[in-house]
Structure formats: C-alpha cells, structure tokens
Fold these 4 entries.
Entry 1:
Amino acid sequence: MKYQELVDVYSALEATTKRLEKTDIIADYLKKLDVDTIGKVGLLLRGSVFPAWSSQEIGIGAKLVERAVAEAIGTSKANVEDAVRDEGDIGLACVKLYAKKSQTTFFSQPLTIDFVFNSLQKLSKISGSRSTNRKISILLELLSQASASEAKYLTRTLTEELRIGVGDGVVRDGIAQAFNIDKSVVERAQMLTNDFSVVAQTALLEGENGLKKLNLTAGTPVKPMLAQLSPPLAEIIPEMGVAICETKYDGIRLQVHRAQGEIKIFTRRLENITHALPEIVELFDECLPHEDYIVEGELIATRNGEPLPFQNILHRVRRKYNVEEAMANVPLKLFLFDVLYYKVPMIDEALSKRREILDEIVDDSDDAMNLSTMLTVTEDNIDEAEKLFESSIAGHHEGIMIKDASQPYIPGIRGKKMLKYKAEPETLDMIVIGGTYGIGKRGDFVGSYLVALRDENDEFKSVAYAATGLDDATLEYLTGKMKELEIATKGRKIIVEPKIVLEIAFSEIVESPEYETGYSLRFPVVKNIRKDKGPKDIDTVERLISMYDAQ
Ligand code: ATP
C-alpha cells in the first residue's frame, strides 16, 4: 500500500475542521485496508508508530530532520532553516522546498506504508556511537524518495506534530463507522489496550464481539483514572451516597504490574521506570502474592519519616547512575490505593470491593509498604472527612481524595467519581510552544513563555505568556532547553517544539481574543517545571472552560 494514499487522507483531514467529515474520511479509508496495513495506519493516523501505552518515541529532533531535508533535496541547511522560520512549520517548509528541489532521485520507488512504518520504528532503536549518521541515512532514504506532500507529513510525523486535527476520538469514531460497531465498544477497547493497532485489527477481523473480548493485561500499562476538583464536602458526599476519602499524598503515581513473575513499574505517563526503583521491586516481591496483578499507589520520598516535597521523589526516579547511593539517602514510602487486576481484571468491580481485595493481598508490615489512609464517609460523618483533611495537611500531605465507593475504575478518564480536595489553589499544566527573549541585560534569557493547552484533537492552543515565578537558575535552565527545542527565531520571539510542561498558577481566567483558546489568565505564575509530564499529559481547553464557567 502506497504511503501517498495515506498522505492524501492526511491532506483531506487537514482541510476540514468538521468532525463528521473527518470521521467519514477515516472510515472510508480504513475499509480499504488489509489487516497488516490497518494495524499500522491505526497508529500513523495519530502520528506515531508505537501504541499509546509504549514509552518508545521516534525521538528525532527538529534540527536533525532539517539537516536531512537539506541533504535530501540538495540545498543548504540555512535554506531549510529560513523556510521553517518563514512558514513556522517544518511540513509547510518542505512543500515549498520540494517544489524547487534540485536533486532528482533515479530509480526511485514509491514509498510504501510498510517501509515508512518500519523505518520510523528503526529510528527509535538507534543509539550509541555514530547514531547520528545512522539516523541520517535512514532519514535520507525516506526523504529523498518522498514527494512534496509525503515530505510534509513525514517530517511532521518525525517531529511528532502531525497537525491534521485528529485526536483519539475521531480515530475511534472512524473505526466504529468503518466496521459498523458501537462507538462505546471501540472506546472501551481503546481504553483497555491503549493500542489503536490492536483495536483496528480486531475490529476488522472479529468486529464488535472481538472488541468486547479485549481487556486489561498485566504487564501492559493503562492510562490512570484522574480526578476533578471537588465541590464542598457537604455538597458532594450526599450526592455520592457512600464515599471513600483518602489522604492525598504528594509524590508520583506508580502503576505496578506483576506478569509471569516479572515486576514492572510505570509512571502515570506509562513510562517504565522499573530500573530506577530496585528496592520497590523487592518490596513488591515480598509484600504481595506471587500472582499476576496491577496495583496503583503514590510513592513519596521521606526524611526522618516525614514526607519530602514532590520534587525530591522526581529526582530519585530520574536518576540513571548511583541508584544505590540514592536508595540509602532518600528512603521511599509507598501508599497503595487501588487494584486493577488480580488474577483477572478487576476494574469493573466497585471501588469498595477493589479496596477490600487490596487490603487482603497487601502485607503492610514493612515500613515502606502502606495502604493509603482511608475512611468510609456518608452524610452522617462528613465531619470525619474534614478531620481527615486537616490531619492530612498537618502531616504535610496535599489534601484528600474523595471517591465514589460504588464506582468501577475507568482508565484515562477525569470524571466526577474521583475528586481531589486540596489546600492549595488549583493550577493548570501547560505546554510551552514559544517565548520572548528579554531586553538589555536579560537579552540572553527567554524571559516570557508562551503556554498552551490541548484541545480535543490534541492540538495546542495558546493561553498566556507566563513570565513570573522563575529564579535566575531556572531561567537559565529553561532558556537552554528552549534553544535545544528551537524551531525558529524571529527578532526576540522564539518558537519551540512542544516538550516543556509548566505548572501555572493564576488569579483568574478571562476571555481574550488574543489567544487561540479565546481565554487568558490574569497574573500567571510558573509554579513548577513538570518534568514528570509530557505533551499528552497537560490540561485541556475543555478543563480551562469548565474552570472559567465555575468561577
Ligand atoms: P495533581 O497535580 O493535583 O496531583 P494530577 O493532574 O497530577 O494533579 P489528578 O488526577 O488531578 O492528577 O490528581 C490525582 C493524583 O493524586 C493521582 O494521579 C495521584 O498521583 C495522586 N494521589 C495521591 N494520593 C492519592 C490517593 N490516595 N488516591 C488517588 N490518587 C492519589
């Protein structure tokens, strides 16, 4: 199957903003594909060659792609950089450059989906010495055979920004429509497998019944269930009926799997961090049964038994060397709060039942292994939930979680069945898409950061410039990162690849035509660099609007 056909689909998708039209385009195309190709296209439509659960990335920087484009078409790197600066996007720059391409490829074969897919996967595996040269040679094979439109979407796929306005929802609807399957069945299959390749192939081969049989598997991470901000306790607890209130620990969330004897630890971004936490692997081996399971909990760093702020645990987990030394210096404590799988999938069980099972299977006699402090609350003992909140804050934790005891675990959703009640005002996690250099003495630093949120198609929409809350060392660090990620610079303005996540506090959300979301923030302050989060984990435009409405 020719890559050009997929590229024509990309173009058609980019040309319309209407969701129903996008769904038609995807559905019509998927119906034409064989099982092998549909598996690849399922991922390529979302601009990737790896399922969402995988932490593998294509991992090619914009600069390397620009260099390869220059070599492929026989022009200078400066020419490519100029075109990218003018167009603000590598894909559009390619369209312009390929029109003037001086290099012709003899005996060139049309690119196939197979070849493109396999080459992109190969790129992610290259590391070590001479890796740049090996990457360039694969890129050249692709880019020198590409047409202008193929180069447009190839380079965008390589830099992980496809810009066709297609999120998970549209791909899901496209699969449902192509094979006449209920959307909710496709959605559930996607949530449980996190793999559009498997979902599309199963839909094609086995239809709705096949998709219904897909389920969680121990060993493959799932997107965690997330929390919304809680209304006052007196309002929400009667609404839930029976709630489980727990201390909200301020660490990192771990999803721990045991599958066929092997223990694996994932972050909430589904990154495998098993290697960084040998003592936690051992702890699980000792404190839980030797069965297949998936459990979730929060991991915190401690000193003299007291919790340390969140950044400490992050440093510990990011460490690649001297893990042993860190183990001795930063003792860890784990607080388990959910079980998603124990011998069989558990997510459809009510939380109260899952918690009972968790209590049964965990031996918490080791100081490091704990179950989260919890309390069953109804409208008769709301005061006890308030006391739990106060004691949690006094114990240097973040607040409490309020969870509906009757509810199943729904992966990947931020719904009303799990809520958080914190002492600190709410913040939003945003992606940096650009910035402005300072003036005078500050001319070497990017002093102001253009931050954006994610819309339903996973496109980034600007919200504000954040310039306060950064000390000199952080400014220097961020400026260095911005330079690494630079796509183009014009005067004092810089555009960057969307990779840096900042946690932004603010006093108020206001309407503003100046920004792409239509909203902006008053007094935005950078609270943290969220190194534990990536572009897919930032907050959404939808969330911003619901916070605006709630103001
Ligand atoms: P925050 O910055 O507030 O942690 P977040 O976006 O990281 O927000 P949320 O879904 O908003 O995640 O808040 C829930 C998070 O709180 C969970 O992902 C988990 O890491 C953490 N947490 C701490 N204690 C608990 C608990 N007892 N039960 C569930 N989650 C908990």
Entry 2:
Amino acid sequence: MIRQRLKAVRVLMTTLRLQSILVTELAHIRYFTGFSGSSGLCLITPTRQFFITDRRYESQAPQEVNGFNIIIAKQNLFPLLAERKLIPTKSRIGFESQHISVADMKSLKKLLPGRHFVPATSILENVTAIKDKKEIELIRSAAGISNKVFNKLLTLVRAGVRECDIAAEISYWHRKYGAECDAFDPIVASGERGALPHARASEKIIRSGEMVVIDFGCRYCGYNSDITRTLAVGNPSAEMKKAYQIVLDAQKKAIDAVRSGVTACSIDAIARKYIQKNGYGRYFIHSLGHGLGIHVHDPLRISAISTAVLQTGNVVTIEPGIYIPGCGGVRIEDDIVVCESGSDILTTSSKELIIV
Ligand code: ZN
Ligand code: ZN
C-alpha cells in the first residue's frame, strides 16, 4: 500500500523534474508513513525515503513507520537534511507550498543553499485524491460512527436544550463510539441562526418550531467523515418545510448524477439550477461540496468554477443548503464515493424531515 503511494508520487516527481520531495504536513506524513504523532517530516527521493522525527517519538516511530529510513533528531528536524547530506546541491526539491510557514521556508533555504525549491503541493493532492479500497473502508467507518451519533441526536435534540449541549454530546459520542476526535468543531445552529452556514454552537436555547442545522464529523484512523442533517423541533413553518424539500430534492438529483468522468461543475449546476428554479437561488450561498479523506476539506471542489473531472475513487461531499436571513436554514450533506457508473453513499442516516 505504502509502496504504491510512493510509486505514484515518484511518477509525478519526474513530471516536475524533482530529485526529491519534502513532505511537511502531518496528514500527508501519516498518509505515506503511518506515523500518527505531531512532529515529523519525510523526504522522498527517486530511490529512497526518509522519515525524521524528534526524541519524543523514538519508540513510537519504529512501531508505526514501515519502509522508511527513520532518523531521530536531537533538536530541530530541518538541520538533519543538511547534516546527513540528503539533498544534493543544485538539485530540485519539491515542497508543500500550502503547508509550510514563511519562517520554516527561510530556515530551509539557509540550511540548503544552492538547491531549487519547487512548489509541489499538486503532486500530493493528485495522489491523495484517489482513494484505495482500504481508505474507502476507513472513511466508511468514520461515517458509520457519525451515523450512530445521529441516531443518538434524535433522542437528545429537544426544545429547551442549548446548542452547545448538543455539540458537547456529539464530541462525547464520537469518542465513545471509537473516533480519534471530532473532524471539526460541530456546528449546531437553530432557528434564525440556521441561516449562518458556519455558525458555531452557541448558548442559544433550541425552541419549539425551529429547524436545527447540525453539521458534524469525526476522524477514524486518520480519515474523516462530514455529515449534515437538519432536524425540526416541533412543527416548523410551511416555508421552512418547503425549503427542506427543495434542498433534499436538489441533493438527491446531484448525487444521482455523480459517476466517474463527469465534471464537478456540472454536478454543482444540477443542484444550483434546481434550487434557482424553485425561487431560492439567492439563498444557496456556497459551493455544493468538497473532497474528503485525510483532510475534512480535501482540495477537490464541487463548485461552479471547479475544473475537476470526477474519477473512480474520489470521495466527496454533496451539501446544498438554503439560508433565509431572519428565518432559518436547511443543509443536507452526505459523503459519497465516486464509482465507475454511479456512487456509493457512506452517510446512511435518514434524510427525510424528522420532527423531534
Ligand atoms: Zn459538513
Ligand atoms: Zn462539508
């Protein structure tokens, strides 16, 4: 598995004429090495691969990391690249331009003069975008934990409960059901607050007659889930019920169109046009979805301006929404695997309007 990932990176390294690539972002390091700690870097050359960490991980690293030369740094990690002469002068070294600080870049250039640093984030994005069977099963497990948490929420979301209490329950049950952690801070937005797509759970008390947008996800073995369901507490207004049905239909239509070979922007257009046709176009204010995997937001975007073509093994979210200021919001989000002739939905929680 790790051998295949390294092979894929090396093929792309040749297209950028790189003699090495320096991986500095933790999720990417874990993807290649299996290392789950919080300090490390890895260097991949055409024939060798090195993993560098510090002394806190002296015993953990050999347990988790296979197939890499492990180097334990006494202090900082970067100086070892120079001390061990791992990067020849005048060579081209790829680096993660999206995931390295200006200060780190400055010290790297000082430690390794005469090398050409080439932004190479796209290489890692391309390799990680296609998930193998094992990865898909891990995302399915993460989604399965969130599905179980949703069932729990059906018994917990009630009039009189604060949004932040629900958020706390989500975090608790994620862990209780085996997740490493939340994938992100749960969003619980009730009533008018539902019109804020990224509202944080507040101390607001949920009232009868309100819709509650709940967006949550967990991480399991390094892979994330990301699901949104909108519950009604008591009887919602006719307007919000109507909005719910439009979002649900738009979401189903978009999911039905997903398969290998279609453009991401065409999927966005299906949901967007349907919501527009029903008169709520100005209330759908974000893109339709995003890639999902070792990051909650993998770089693949399902938006009107995306140039991506969906491929077998991509895992994406489909999450249309309607946000009516002063009134409320509805969002429904699923995680799906792109397949040859359709898709596989990982978040299996019910999407019909549930009144609790
Ligand atoms: Zn979400
Ligand atoms: Zn999402």
Entry 3:
Amino acid sequence: MNHSLDPLFLASLRYWTGMNLKRSNMNFEFTEEQIAVRDAARDFAQNVLKPTIIERDENQRFGEEEAKQMAELGFLGMMVDPKYGGGGMDTVSYVLAMEELSKVDASSSVLVSVNNSLVCWGIEEFASEEQKMKYLVPLAKGEKIGAFCLSEPEAGSDATSQTTTAIDKGDHYLLNGTKNWITNGGSASTYLVIAQTDKEKGHKGINVFIVEKGMEGFIVGAKENKLGIRGSDTHTLMFTDVKVPKENRIGEDGFGFKFAMKTLSGGRIGIAAQALGIASGAYELALAYSQERKAFGKEISKHQAIAFKLADMATEIEASRLLCLKAAVLKDRGQNYDLASSMAKVFSAETAMRTTIEAVQIHGGYGFVKEYHVERLMRDAKITQIYEGTSEIQRMVISRSILG
Ligand code: CAA
C-alpha cells in the first residue's frame, strides 16, 4: 500500500506529528528564552535544592525557604499571563524547568506543577475577572500556594463518584466532605475543591469552588507519611458546614467535572516532565558512577551488562522527552493535547520507574544508601505512576481515543 496517497493516513500522520507535511516546520531547537529558563532551573536545583533534599526527605520537611525562593524566581506562576502577575512563559519552558527541578527534587517540582497547572491554569482559563484578580494574582506571584482537591477516600480514579457535597443555600453553598492525599494540603492558602451539588445529574451535577484556608469548618487533617516525595506536604482535608460564597464557584453550574478533566490534561504534562526529570537525574548519576567505579579490572560502564542498561535508559529518556515536548507544543499552539499528555505521562512514568530501579542496580550497595540520591529518586518515581491519573487511567484515556 502506498501510504503517501492515502488521505486518511496523511490526516492521521498530520494529527500525530502536529506538522504541516508540505512545509515541514518541525524544529528541535529551543529559543534563547527557553534555554535561559532551563538553565535557571538547573542552577537553582543544583545549588539550592540539592544541598537540603536528603534532610528534607528524611524528616518529611516541606521546604518553606526553598518554596519562597522558587516564588521569587517566578517558577510558581511561570505560565500565567504577566497581567495577572505571572511569568508569561510557554509550556515548553515549563517542561524544561520541571525536568531540571525534578532531576534533583521531585518534592519541590510537584509544588511547581500543581500550582501552575492545576490551580493557576484552571483559574486563568475558566474563572471570572474578579476571581482572577482576587485569587490568581497572589498565586501567580507565589505569595500564596494553591491546592487541587479532587480525590476522596473512595473516589480516586473514578472521579465522578464524588461524595463531598455542596448544597445551594441561596447566597452560599454549604460544603461537607473529606478530601484525601492533597498535595500542598498544609502549605496552601487557596484550595480548588470539587464537590457534588446535584447527585441526580451525575458528572453534570459537579462544581468547583475556591475555598480559603481559615473558612469556618475547614480543617487541615493529618499529614501523610509517604514512600516518596516526602518533602512535599500531603494532607487529608475535612469540610464541615463550610459556607462558601456563591461567587467562589468557578464557571457555569455543573462545570466542575469538565473543569477537573481539562485541568488534569495540562497537569499531566507537568507530571510527565517530572517523571522525565526523575529518570534523567537517576540516569546522569548512574552514568557518572559507572565511569568511575571499577570491577574486574575496568570501569563498570565498559562491561556490556552495564553499557546496555545505560543505552536503554538513554533511549527511553529521549523518547519521554519528545512525548513531553510534543504535548507541550500542542498546548502552546492551542491544539488538543488530551491524548498527547496521557501518552507523555504513562510513558514517562513507566520510564522513571524502570530507570531509577536500574540506576540503583548500577550503584550496587551504594545505591541502597541515601547519600547517593538514587534510592530517593526510585521512591519518588512511584508516585508519577499514581497521581494525576494512574498509568491505568492514562491507558484508558489513550485506548478510548484510539477506539472511539
Ligand atoms: N476534557 C473535557 N471534558 C472531558 C475530558 C477532557 N479531558 N475527559 C472527559 N470529559 C468529559 C466527557 O466528555 C464527558 O462529558 P459529556 O457527558 O458531556 O460528554 C464527561 O467528562 C464524563 O466523561 P467520561 O464519561 O469519560 O467519564 P468517566 O467516569 O468514564 O471517567 C476518566 C473518565 C478519564 C477515567 C476520569 O474519571 C479520570 O481522569 N480519572 C482520574 C482522575 C485523576 O486523574 N485523579 C487525580 C487526582 S488529582 C491529583 O493527583 C493532584 C495532585 O495533588 C498531584
């Protein structure tokens, strides 16, 4: 079959590659601005985050000082329009920054990802001008931290099964329920809370509300003791008869589920880039170690058993990077990126898990102790297969897209 004459094939290829086939505009070069953002993130990660990450991981300490410095450098609202106090950067720059930060410290990079993608983006894209001025500006400047509250004790992957309720009481909603595993749960001041307002209507009876820390009846519960990303603060949140003003609902009545899905589509690019960074951080450490450590009379990198591991790691990391950048470019061009972000996330997360396990293996006994960083990266990798949609959920999104 001559594919070049098949219009269906051409259409799918155009969609797939996002390029104009007559006038190929694929470009693998970054702009000067993108390179500057990447280098700034790399310097910050190596010089500021790295010296404290082992201690913060050990003590499950949220790095307030590190977060403050990331805010000052503009990482917490890097994609927000400057008119709302953000950095006005594109999604490609965000991916580059996320990779560099995550090479060293995935606990700090998840703060960057959640604040940018799940909180700031959702408000900038869908909230009213008044809501943006009141809530987005301090979030984009990093003066306040945001949290995205969708998961519940019995609603994780099955996100439509919300049991948190928000009952319409005229000028306010009465919010009741519990949210679980909320990133930035303790350090945030602004919470986007998804809740059921009309059970009869299924996902069309779900809304999203801006809830402030300190509202009566809102309690930040226990901090989770986690396997990985131990420097990020993850909490249970409890809402008992919290009066949320009507003007704090985002969008039309019933828009909450679509808000969550659209927001998560972009969030998955951030987590894919986080997974990419965890993988490339572990790979760089393993590569350097394998060129120093000698066994049987030569550097272990010169043994094929190790060299082939490095080859596979490098190849999978490059493929992850291309998938992340593809999703970012589609988003920056205003094209649909739902499929691309799920592909980037599942592939990068699986790559992060495989690569970090191999990085520990290459380090041998040293890999099993904290000073060499790779065991932490291996523990951190696991969450990328779980949050913002498990690998199974990404495969569900991808297969539905393929199969219709
Ligand atoms: N954009 C816009 N609308 C979307 C959408 C998208 N990406 N995906 C689905 N929808 C719409 C559908 O079109 C449908 O609307 P209509 O009925 O009007 O057509 C509606 O949403 C319901 O969609 P589905 O029938 O596909 O819903 P479903 O119940 O089968 O679930 C799902 C779909 C993809 C599995 C979804 O439930 C999901 O993504 N689950 C995972 C949730 C998740 O990622 N949780 C992460 C928690 S947040 C977190 O981890 C943050 C953190 O702190 C780090």
Entry 4:
Amino acid sequence: MTDSKASPPEQITDRLFATERNPEDFRFDASVARVFPDMIRRSVPGYTTIIPMIEVITEQYAQRGSHCYDLGCSLGASTLAMRHGIPYQDCTLVGVDNSSAMIERCEHYIALDDHDLPVTLRCEDLLKTELSQASVTTLNFTLQFVPPEHRLGLLTRIAGATLPGGALILSEKIRFESDREQDIQTRLHHEFKRANGYSDLEISQKRAAIEQVLIPETLTEHRERLLKAGFEQVLVWYQCFNFVSMLAIKTR
Ligand code: GEK
C-alpha cells in the first residue's frame, strides 16, 4: 500500500442539521459537498477504514489494460484510493457522480493528489454511464441512493461489463431481518454519531431528511441480487454496526 492521499486536505465541520429546519429530502447539493469529508467521516462507521482497504483490494483485482470505475464518487476519496492501488499505467480510471457540486470539488482534490494515473470524471447518472472491460468497480455507499427497482439492472450491467477475475466493491448501509437486531445496531450507530459530536437534534433531523432517499436492504437481498446479476462469489469483508462492505467477484 502506498502513502495514499485519499483524504481531502481541509475539513469543514458539518453543521447542516444543527438548527431546527423544515424537513425536506436530503440532496447532494453545494452545501453538502462543502462539508462532505467531515460529514461522511463522522456519520459512517468504518468509512476511514474502508477507504484505504479499497486501495488494497484494487491492487489485487486490477488488470492490465482494463477500465476501473468509481460510481457515485462524490469528492473522490475512493477514486484516489483506487488510483493509488492500480498497479498498471495502461489502466483507465473513471469517477462518476450526477452532482455537479461534488464533481467540481472532486476535480480539485484529484488535481492536488500526487499520483500520475489519469482520472476521467463524468458528471452523469450512473444508471446511464457507459461501462466496459472493467476489472474493478466501486460503489462505496452509492447503491443505497439508487431507487430499488433500478438496482438489479445496474448490477447486471456492471457484472456484464466485468472481465473474468474482476470484482465489484459494494459498501452499503444495511437493515436487519430481526427487528431486535435492527434496533440494537441503529442505537449503536447513533451512539457512534454522538461520540463524534452530533447532537440528538442533528441525528434526528438528518434521519428524517435522508430516510426517503437512502433505502437500505438486508445482506441476504444484496447477496442474492449480486449472484443473480452475474457475480459468482460474494463475500463480506467488513462490517461495523449497520454498515457493510462486500466484494462480488466475477470468476469467469
Ligand atoms: C466515497 N463513494 O466518498 N448517479 C450518479 N451519482 C449518484 C447517483 C446517480 N444516480 N445517485 C447518487 N449519486 C463516495 C461516497 S456518497 C455516500 C458516496 C453518502 C451520488 C451522490 O451524488 C453522492 O455524491 C454519492 O452518490 C453518494 O467513497 O453520502 O452516504
């Protein structure tokens, strides 16, 4: 593993939900893009472990002359981890996000990074983005924002574009089949947020804003759909509370 520059340099504190506000659905606009590194680090348990591991996994599955994709790249933390993990100069790396506020800032962070593998950024819907000859594709906490009825189609397209021996890194917030486990894991997640300085008001307002747009599914639903989409092997390589990262491998 190289000395990755995956973390953006400056971090502006997320106070978006600190004062009482009218409930409206969460959007990846300029105000979110501005505080995003701080927001995701303090909200997603395991995020700061997952990013450097994306570099390690990419190094294992990248293939000469192939394409690597980071779908829902936001400010490019996983794109940069992939960039540092790809061992071949003839690979191409593509980051895709449909938020122009995210892509504008992402360009800045890519330019600050010291690696020389070119990165192409596409400001477009990942459901429409062109995919081919893929060795490593990353969906790091992105599929959860795709409407559930489009998820199988997207994963089938990714599996179809993946070369034998290639892989998909899929990180998601999940829900649990047992209500009891769901309650415990949710409580632990909220304690993680409290420990990171979020107030009860911030936690409840963010929850209300995001629950219409972030639709979590169970591990069984993810696993079965990945197999149906055309991946032959699915494993969980990381879990912290209700946040999981899976590896789906195309063996042939
Ligand atoms: C990271 N992967 O730091 N097309 C393109 N982009 C989309 C779409 C879509 N249909 N839907 C959502 N997005 C990043 C973090 S954040 C996760 C990913 C989070 C984008 C959206 O604009 C946002 O930038 C990203 O997916 C999700 O490793 O905020 O919890």
